[in-house]
Amino acid sequence: xxxxxxxxxxxxxxxxxxxxxxxxxxxxxxxxxxxxxxxxxxxxxxxxxxxxxxxxxxxxxxxxxxxxxxxxxxxxxxxxxxxxxxxxxxxxxxxxxxxxxxxxxxxxxxxxxxxxxxxxxxxxxxxxxxxxxxxxxxxxxxxxxxxxxxxxxxxxxxxxxxxxxxxxxxxxxxxxxxxxxxxxxxxxxxxxxxxxxxxxxxxxxxxxxxxxxxxxxxxxxxxxxxxxxxx
Length: 231
Ligand SMILES: *Cc1c(COP(=O)(O)O)cnc(C)c1O
Prior knowledge:
eight-stranded parallel β-sheet; 10 helices; binds pyridoxal-5'-phosphate
């Protein structure tokens, strides 16, 4: 059997395959600081976490120039823990949550970049807004008053299915939503430019459909060990 590749080798191979316009979010959830530092040493700076406490702890312990992306489902009562550290929140799915992020960003005297999460999968369990709900949020008078958040794009997760055609059409629909919302609400703002789609199993399809941020865990760090204690 061949020796498994190191994190640095996986990353090098992965980055070599990414087109220039696509950035890699290295999804480090459940993995220890040492694994993150190994990736950091190769130049990787964007890391993704989906638990508030885990992001807070790692942000305090690890180098300050890491850009932490929150990629999980965010509860309003927990926003305060990541507000000082987070560089991009991928999963905004309500005006209420966005208002809370705005409030906590203001307390920290900063602006927090956010993506609206759209529901594109057929599965019931995935979070996110419909296209119409995203439109309604962006058109809401209260949204215009939020000075400490900036919507820089959309995020979505495709169905967990081996049906490549279905995954492709789900990513295509997210791309269409992105184009429509950009024309309608962000025509004057070049900052609305990110499309977060694609994970270890479907990132090639996502890139083909216009992804600018791929969120990759397993293909870089190996499988996750959910049973290990929060270290
Ligand atoms: C865990 C996670 C990923 C990474 O998944 P892999 O299959 O390990 O690449 C991407 N996006 C979200 C929202 C996640 O929770």
